Structures
1.
Amino acid sequence: MTDWRKSSYSGDGDNCVEVGHGVGIRDSKAPATHITLSSEAWAAFLEVVRSR
């Protein structure tokens, strides 16, 4: 995973969560580590977030 991006809502700050194509997430303050997620887990997460 090399293409990390953060939400446009994060602005220029470094206190955010970034999403990587592949699929994974990481804390912008600790970019050397990340959590790898399956496509199914990511889809389930997005479904919950969108439903709220």
2.
Amino acid sequence: MPFRTDDGQPLGELLLAQRPADGHRFEVRAGFVYDDPVTGRRYTVPARPAGAPLPDPGVAEPPVHGVTDLASVPMWMWSFIASYGRQSAPAILHDERSIVAAELGDRRAALAQRREDDRVFRTGLREQRVPVLRSWLMWAWVAADRERQFGGAAGVLLLVQSIVGAIVVLGASVAAFWNPWWLLALPAVALAALLWAAAGLAVLVLLLTGSLAVLGPLLALHLSALVPFRLVEAIVEVAAGGRAADVVRPTVAPVAERDS
């Protein structure tokens, strides 16, 4: 088992503290390590001391070592992928490694570091028995965010191509019911993804394109039920003297925002 405690024992539990108690972040109370079975390298997640000062919510501060939001899944996608579970330990490790990459201070170095760390994240997910498809999808979406953050113009182009490709795949699949020749657009999209092979990103583009094409309609259907419910909930909240924003984010808002 590659996830272990600091003293080398199999990781039997994750000790986290939710701070503040109604917030969305957790502090690691007992550090742990991960031994990557691919490279043999050991990665460390440090513990954050109990009682350490909380970040000032009114001031933009860099991420803190030993602090995590678990898997960074938007609330409206929790029915597809939960923010915690078997993926918790890999997600915490990935948060820590993302801080390390950002601290390099060099975009190219951070990009190279994150590409390896994202691969470690995917490997860790499988080690924790997260299903294959879910592991690859979670990897694809953190990798997409990596390319957006550190990839510069090439990263933007990759995301745009993935989105356009998904629209083409979805549209061609529907149009094929009337004219099967539209299916020729599918291999064209796949060939376009292969243009990223030299950078080692062809699989990522294919996964992003395919997942957007397949999950897009499902997400739209999901949101068509979720949004009306949230609107009703917001109306009731406002009528009761609360704030509509409180139903969108079910955790504490920054102090500066609450007091405004």
3.
Amino acid sequence: MHTHDAALTDLILEHVRDRLETGSTPLHHPGQPDKLEHALAGLLGPEGQDPADVLRLYAEHLAPSSVACDSPRFLSFVPAAPTQAAVLFDMLVSCSSIQGVSWKLASGPIAAENQVLRLIADLAGMPAATGGCFVSGGSAGNLSALVTARDTARLERGLGDHDPVRIALSDQAHSSIHNTLRIIGAEPLVVPTTDHRLTGTALQAALATAPDTSNVIGVVATAGTTNAGIIDDLAGIARTARDFELWFHVDGAYGGAGLLAPTVRQRYLGIEHADSLVIDPHKWLFAPFDCAALLYRDPTLAKAAHTQHASYLDALQTGSHAEWNPADYAYHLTRRARGLPLWFSLAVNGTRAYTQAIESALSLAADTAALIRDTPHLELIRDPELSVVLFHRTGWTRTDYTAWSKRLLADQTGFVAPTGWEGRTVCRFAFLNPATSLDLVREILDTMV
């Protein structure tokens, strides 16, 4: 089982090469449960199968049953578009068996990951002491950051482990924030928004009118909402957080990559004051799944909240500040060095290429908005701030959108899932892939006539 098999290596690399060299990634379709069950039946047993047969099964049944998030025609949720450099290096990381838990076990990879974290911190304008780690996604990053916020506040305010705490957030906050609060036993203080954007003024008003704010310990702002790409009033929220001594967390999982785009950089003013920040490179920084950057203004607070203690872990704690243990800065222990593919891609391509790719998505969103605005049967809901475009097809109901979305995928024209906005079903484009063109957008819009 552990012997080297050159033929197996060549076989898999051939499939990888075919996937990478395909000019246009097909969208594929969701699989049918009964057909997948039939294809997989009897595969796992006491005796092994011929690798060529298993790979054929994957290529013919499993891969076509996975909708390709990196297709230029995938415009739902938040797409993916990992660079070739990142994908190839991810293979190297996977076959290197790197245990990225500690400096003692993976000092070289961790030093490279920290170089990327430093780059992101500098883009955000955060101080030199800023540090953190890479986690699996925005949900893991938000959870780890808000655990740190909760534990820090309890320590500083003399609260007990079971004393209730609240965290302020807008009615537009990502679903993972609500899930995090439920997990960590914190109550939400939901702040109503004007035009779906949380402001410092609204936060201050909510705190001023609440019967008791003594247990409000933090606030979550969003740098690019998932549904509409809206950036909160980060500067105003930062001021209010400072005035009320609140932990200031910024969820930039999708939109934080816009820090690299000069045309929108001003919209992020105030992000430099964040106590914690999450940005997902597997979204708009073109890294493969799964990869999220988690940063803390004062990493010692996160270390106090997350370091795990056991006799079998003592050897990992050397007491040296220069020896960075990623396991100390999130809820995880075992972890892959998931920041390395991004590091390699940044080193190979340079940050200018990233800026150009992000700007191309911003330009496509603006051009698409103009196209929709000039189409009689379409209604642009709002001008895009980032790369999400919301619009409505006049006369359509949820049923119409659902049927259209299914036809679109069945024809392999595109994958566009409808969303909700102010009580009605609407259409949403999420642009990220540099290979998505305005001609492709026109092709999709033409199906809505």
4.
Amino acid sequence: MELGTLRYFVAVAEELHFGRAATRLHMSQPPLSRAIKRLEGEVGTLLFTRSPTGVTLTPAGTVLLDEARALLDHADRVRARVSAAAGTATLTVGILGDGADPGVSRLAAAYRRAHPGIDVRIRDTDLTDPTCGLRARLVDVALTRAPFDEAALTVRTLRTDPVGVVLRADDPLARRDRLRLAELSDRRWFQFPQGTDPTWQAYWNGGTVREGPVVRAVPECLHAVLWNGTVGLAPLGHDLPAELAIVPLIDMPPSRVVAVCNQGDTNPLIRSFMAIAEAAYRR
């Protein structure tokens, strides 16, 4: 059994849905399904009972889930100890948002000064997973935006940003100084793929169930507005093409920039990142 395949299995076992697990792992569903079938072939038994609404663990799958979690935890500890012994400690940071944010620049500079020998690896992620792969342990820590399901995570708010609605520049509402969410009730809003964290989806839809095109990344959101007149929300202060405009929403809660790690993580590099991030964003 490969560790990567076991991570796929754990994701499906925790989500109990191939689609949601694929979204969490940032991959398409067919290769994930094939990997699980190969794993079932290797162990010689079914691990999941499939149904149109999702999957459930078989007794064998329940046993493997416990063992897989233990193996993956042990592998992470082995990797950390080997890296430390080799003098090549690494920290993988997931980032969702604007890499030109001055807060990110201050954080990067401060972290380099505090840990000059650390190899920091960046994983830039799309809008389908606000934790940037943290739950799947694809990253050690995330710099992202809330809200999302914070279960088993440690979340530190670094800054709050007001939010506006992105419109085509020739939209009659684009000439307004400010808007309310109710004034957009008849519009189509961009949506995230099925299986995306519902708290995250609800926030960017203004707390209401909406209809509209499915997008995964910021450029897709902007094109949806440009080509189809779709509307969507974005933090204020970001540069937009001349063909687009953003109008502040007066009844929308602000968007929180946050640093996130797995709850109970004792890695000193992660603890240091969280502390330095809070200091860098206070400046």
